[in-house]
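Can you please make up a whole protein chain along with its backbone structure tokens because I've never seen that pairing?
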Amino acid sequence: MSANPSAIRSNKLSFKQQQLKFRENAILDAVNKLLAQKGFDLMTMDEVAADVGIAKASLYKHFESKEALAAASMTRLLEDALSVVEGISTKLSAIDKLKALVRWGIKLHLGGTMPLLPSTRSSIQQSLLTNALYMARLSALTEKLGEWITEAQLSGNLTPSLPGEVILYTIFARSCDPVADFLKLGGAFSDEDIVELLIHTTFQGMTGRS
């Protein structure tokens, strides 16, 4: 799970295609950082181009709009999450599989490369809902997590009476949890400490249960 899934998407591209893919990944890396820092509505195409070190006109050759750029970034994030899911050992219990994915998300967040979740009030929301590739990846990830959630509830590791949607959205939200930022800013805990503290409060709560 230490490999970067987005860096090894295809080994059979031509040299020119590899160059284009490399630049697109650099663009999306910049977008991820900016989306993590300020969100979609405040991010500008000028900032993205400046961060990558290319002209804005060159940026538009890759992505026709800010909405297309953000959708590509969010789609790549889902593809990376699906790669992580595929790499999680099948020997783990469902609850431990969920924890592994949440750990990955929190680590990305602490590293400053986890885009903020698209708010229902953000102008990107409708664009994402009409993006077929994004919706396909989201559906695939949701389906797999739904399987793990159901299995964990049946085994008693998650509260059976909780609606699956509540658990699912809570898991998604942990990757953008501002608690992680406040704890890191305070300086009292290492990144690894913060990850495990958030894992504990997510899955065991704050009641003192083991």
